[in-house]
Design brief:
Mean pLDDT is 91; it is low at 6-21. This protein has one domain (21-237): Alpha-Beta Barrel (TIM Barrel), CATH 3.20.20. Helix content is 41%, strand content 16%. It is α/β, with parallel strands linked by helices. β6, α7 (152-159) and β7 (162-164) form a beta-alpha-beta unit. The structure holds zinc ion (ZN). The site of zinc ion has 5 residues, from loops.
Length: 252
């Protein structure tokens, strides 16, 4: 009886000593698919997440990140700023350099008002382009306009995608200067779980001024700049399992 009580107590203690894992901590694909993630799962990190490329600055942005020894995350579209194949060298360079390449849909539509078949097509066309350029399919998606309504999350669950939004908005899309964007990061602060910012590689001020400032800001606050997957303890899960053969397509 006493022994049983001690065992029961020990079991209770060991159970209570373990924090209940959040879906992000567990990060098993079937647990997180279709859930919206807006910040990192741990402190001490910062992500640099860029939407809407590839574009004319992609290659130089990759160089900047590489020279600083940090990893960025690129949420790419197929056609928003020209056909993705026109920038295939820059996309391949970003992938080969270890940056995370993720989906931002093919045409950048308002996914909240699309039917399931259209949403599937938006995702699969990006997958095919990524396969053609670097042989992998993305695991992560950021919906355009951060829209997660309508059929979107249901289709993301079906397609087993990890959905990411943001917790800091640089506001570059809304005419905020790099200096105004910097204030937003300072207000958000360096403490707590790492930030996943909304920024756009289509604005020169973001690619040059803001990015350099964020790299320095991270250093002065002892934050490691990592990919979104890494900040979710999911470094191995940035892409869907396996590699794929391209279909030879080179135009949109
Ligand atoms: Zn966008």
């Amino acid at each position: 009886m006493l022994f049983e009580s001690v065992v029961a107590l020990a079991l209770a203690l060991s159970a209570s000593a373990k924090p209940v894992p959040s879906p992000i901590d567990v990060i098993k694909r079937d647990h997180v698919a279709g859930i919206v993630i807006n910040k990192c799962a741990k402190p001490g990190v910062l992500t640099l997440a860029y939407d809407d490329g590839p574009y004319q600055y992609t290659s130089s942005l990759v160089d900047t990140l590489n020279n600083a020894g940090v990893k960025g995350t690129f949420f790419l579209t197929g056609t928003l700023y020209g056909c993705i194949y026109n920038q295939r060298a820059a996309v391949k360079k970003a992938y080969d350099s270890g940056h995370q390449i993720a989906s931002h849909t093919w045409t950048h539509p308002h996914v909240g008002s699309l039917g399931a078949a259209q949403i599937r097509s938006e995702m699969e066309r990006v997958e095919q382009a990524f396969v053609n350029i670097f042989g992998r399919k993305p695991q992560y998606v950021r919906p355009p306009y951060l829209e997660t309504g309508g059929q979107f999350l249901g289709v993301m669950r079906e397609l087993n995608y990890t959905v990411v939004t943001n917790d800091v908005d640089a506001g570059d899309w809304n005419n905020q200067s790099p200096q105004q964007s910097q204030q937003r990061f300072q207000q958000a602060g360096a403490a707590g779980d790492g930030h996943i910012p909304l920024m756009h590689e289509t604005y020169q001020g973001t690619v040059t001024t803001l990015t350099s400032w964020l790299i320095a800001w991270a250093r002065s606050n002892n934050l490691q700049i990592v990919t979104v997957a890494e900040c979710l303890n999911d470094a191995e899960g940035a892409y869907k399992p396996g590699t794929f053969e391209g279909n030879g397509q080179t135009t949109c």
